[in-house]
């Protein structure tokens, strides 16, 4: 009996052992299969339904702008949502105002079409795509001026192409000294772009053989910037336009143009050099102070003026002249945004938030200007620059593909505008 029980116990042990081995084998096989599947998935391109939504985080300068914006909603706090149902862009790649280097669809950029399928969704409200026909009707007999550098032209062209798609009768001209402008004849609505890099007048300066204040400080050449005189390209714009959108910033941190040693910015006020000499950031503060005052003194009481915040660049691995590139095909994640733009990291693209600090400070308390905050929403869009499709010798990670991100800027602009202006 004992032997029988021992045999039964031994048989049971063998059975349990066999079962455990079988179970472990199945578990190992399942683990290997799962690992292989995950590895294969990681190598496969994402399907449209696999696109991530990218939550935003407040920028380090958010608290500075409190009181500047009059919007009932903080449009800058939101996320990019991928919408695979978008079948076509807002306007065709054949729109003639699109600069060749920005025409990413025409240049066959690999994600040229995908760029327009991302929609910005504020967390506490909605930002609808504006209706161009409704806009033309609501703002007939209105003049709109974009004043600033090539990034404001980027935005101007996006608006023109959207409107041109629904209203083709236009007159091309240069109102109030503009670089370019168009009137939509059926609605008598004019939009114009006034090119200016610094807002203030500037030009080459060379030392005088007879000496002077700057010569005594051993300056031989540089750029004279008159902080209290607007550049002639836009000086008449405030009295001509009913709506104005200003920007400045990119040229203030441009050592390839304003080399601090070989060709520094030399600031003048009331015709006299500012001494001791000051760095560009202090010069920017002076220019903003004077230009804001200039605009406020020359606009009509019902004129609406916006100042657009800085458009972010997305150079990685160096600046534009150091082999920097922007290879992303999807928007960045929040942690990637902070890595690129945090003031603490002081990286290649820190310019955007630095400029905004000066803008928020200068515009606080302004009775005329409203802030058009496009910076944080745009910080995610490393995928939306022309990159190598721009046709330049270097990657263009500063301007934006058209159609693209600047179309969302116009949605934001018009959403703000509708809050301020009673349509005609």
TrEMBL record:
Keywords: Membrane, Signal-anchor, Transmembrane, Transmembrane helix. The chain crosses the membrane at residues 12-39. It comes from Ilex paraguariensis (yerba mate). Residues 44-70 are annotated as: Disordered. Its main location: membrane. GO terms for cellular component: membrane. It is found in: Membrane. This is Trichome birefringence-like N-terminal domain-containing protein.
């Amino acid at each position: 009996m004992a032997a029988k029980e021992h045999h039964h116990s031994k048989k049971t042990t063998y059975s349990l052992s066999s079962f455990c081995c079988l179970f472990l084998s199945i578990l190992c096989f399942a683990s290997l299969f799962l690992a292989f599947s995950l590895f294969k998935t990681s190598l496969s391109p994402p399907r449209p339904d696999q696109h991530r939504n990218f939550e935003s985080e407040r920028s380090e300068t958010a608290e500075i702008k409190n009181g500047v914006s009059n919007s009932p909603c903080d449009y800058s706090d939101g996320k990019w949502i991928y919408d695979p149902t978008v079948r076509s862009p807002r306007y065709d790649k054949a729109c003639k105002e699109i600069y060749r280097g920005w025409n990413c669809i025409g240049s066959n950029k690999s994600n040229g079409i995908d760029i327009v399928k991302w929609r910005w969704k504020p967390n506490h409200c909605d930002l609808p795509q504006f209706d161009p026909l409704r806009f033309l009707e609501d703002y007939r007999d209105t003049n709109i001026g974009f004043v600033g550098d090539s990034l404001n032209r980027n935005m101007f062209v996006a608006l023109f192409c959207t409107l041109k798609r629904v209203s083709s009768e236009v007159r091309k001209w240069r109102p109030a000294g503009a670089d370019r402008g168009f009137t939509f004849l059926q609605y008598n609505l004019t939009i114009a772009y006034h090119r200016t890099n610094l807002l203030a007048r500037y030009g080459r300066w060379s030392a005088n053989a007879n000496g002077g204040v700057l010569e005594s400080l051993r300056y031989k050449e540089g750029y004279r910037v008159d902080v209290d005189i607007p550049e002639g390209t836009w000086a008449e714009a405030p009295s001509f336009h009913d709506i104005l959108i200003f920007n400045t910033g990119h040229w203030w941190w441009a050592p390839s143009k304003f080399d601090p040693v070989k060709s520094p910015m030399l600031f003048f006020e009331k015709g006299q050099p500012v001494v001791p000499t000051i760095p560009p950031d202090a010069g920017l503060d002076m220019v903003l102070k004077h230009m804001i005052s200039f605009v406020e003194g020359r606009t009509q009481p019902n004129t609406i003026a916006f100042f657009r915040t800085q458009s972010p660049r997305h150079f990685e691995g160096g600046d534009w002249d150091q082999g920097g590139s922007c290879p992303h095909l999807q928007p960045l994640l929040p942690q990637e945004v902070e890595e690129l733009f945090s003031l603490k990291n002081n990286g290649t693209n820190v310019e955007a938030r630095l400029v905004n600090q000066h803008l928020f400070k200068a515009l606080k308390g302004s009775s005329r200007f409203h802030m058009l905050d496009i910076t944080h929403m745009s910080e995610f869009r490393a995928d939306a620059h022309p990159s190598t499709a721009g046709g330049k010798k270097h990657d263009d990670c500063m301007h934006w593909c058209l159609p693209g991100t600047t179309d969302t800027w116009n949605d934001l602009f018009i959403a703000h505008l509708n809050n301020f202006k009673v349509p005609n």
